[in-house]
Amino acid sequence: MREPRFLVDADLAGHHSGARRVILDPGAARHAAGVLRLKAGTSIRLFDGRGAEYRAKLVSARRGEVQVELTEPVPALPEPPLAIILALGVSRGERMEFAVQKSVELGVARIVPLWTARGVVRLAPGKAEARLLRWRRIAQSACEQCGRSSVPVLEAPRTLDDWLAERPRAGSAIRLAGVGGRALACLPDPEPPVTILVGPEGGLDPTESQRVDANGFVAARLGPRTMRTETAAITGVAAVQLLWGDLGAVAAPTE
After folding, report:
1. Which has the higher per-residue pLDDT, 10 or 159?
2. How far is Cα 4 from Cα 55, in angstroms, rounded to an integer?
3. Is residue 45 pLDDT above 80, yes or no?
4. CB of 116 within 8 A of CB of 200?
5. pTM assigned to the model
6. Residues 62 and 195 sit within 8 Å (Cβ to Cβ)
7. Residues 6+ away with beta carbon under 8 Å from 38
8. Given this model, what pLDDT does residue 245 score?
9. CB atoms < 10 A from the CB of 108, how many?
10. 3-class DSSP state for residue 126?
11. What is the mean pLDDT of residues 140-144?
12. Residue 251's pLDDT is what?
């Protein structure tokens, strides 16, 4: 049986060389004790979101507090050799959450939510902050599930124009363009990092597409069918990982 994994906000290496006791964060504690009903002596894994991972033993669970004791470091799953940045037009609730979750599982390094002309979601500042926190929790949970020890950066939403003005121009940039553009598999080998831009439910409008392409993006298509925004996002990331990244690579498991 696979050991449950939990993200902790702690210096695991420092704890391992010192007292070795770690108190799980409230959310992780509720999941460990209330959902999974783990008992004292259960072996679990902890990771810090920055690449360190340790095996640990559950010591106690009472009054909502779960204590564990670090036992040994374990090899962390290496991050994909090709860094992928997913810039994604903000879409409605579950669609955006699905795209965040699955793109993290597929190995993206960074996610940039974008406000665009045809986007149907408009949030007041307070609600936007709450939505961002939820997206980050989804990204963290996806890392717990898929074995990643480093949590991708999930930036605060910004307008497409602000992002284009600020983004570094290093690497390759791809705009997923529905049925337009070149076939993705026919593009030359990219320079890292690879930025993939996906529009919202209604897609980018023509003037946005022109500005994006003038910013160094290459329009590419994924096939003959029109995809929903969340489908295009995860298909685009999966295709880039398969063509140039580590998806499908044959390697021995680390544990």
Report:
1. 159
2. 10
3. yes
4. yes
5. 0.89
6. no
7. 4, 32, 44, 58, 61
8. 94
9. 27
10. helix
11. 95
12. 54
Give me the residues paired with residue 220 across strands. 176, 182
The mean pLDDT of 119-141, rounded to a whole number, is: 86
Phi-psi region of 189 (alpha: psi -120 to 50; beta: other; left: phi over 0): beta
The first and second tokens of residue 120, run together, are 């149907």
pLDDT at 250: 59
Q: How far apart are CA 200 and CA 229, in angstroms?
A: 6
Look up tokens 């307070």; give the residue. Answer: 126
Residue 97: predicted pLDDT: 96
The three-point CA angle 163-169-172 to 5° equals 105
Residues sharing a CB contact under 8 Å with residue 125, sequence separation 6 or more, in sequence order: none
Pair 176, 217: CB distance under 8 Å: no
Q: Beta strand pairing status for 182-183 and 43-47?
A: unpaired
Residue 157 backbone dihedrals phi, psi, to 5 degrees:
-60, 145
Q: What are the phi and psi torsion angles at 33 (to 5°)?
A: -90, -40
- Find out whether 183 and 84 touch, Cβ atoms under 8 Å: no
Share of the chain above pLDDT 70, in %: 94
Nearest to 197 by CA among 106, 115, 89: 89
What is the Rg, in whole angstroms, of the alpha carbon atoms belonging to the chain? 20
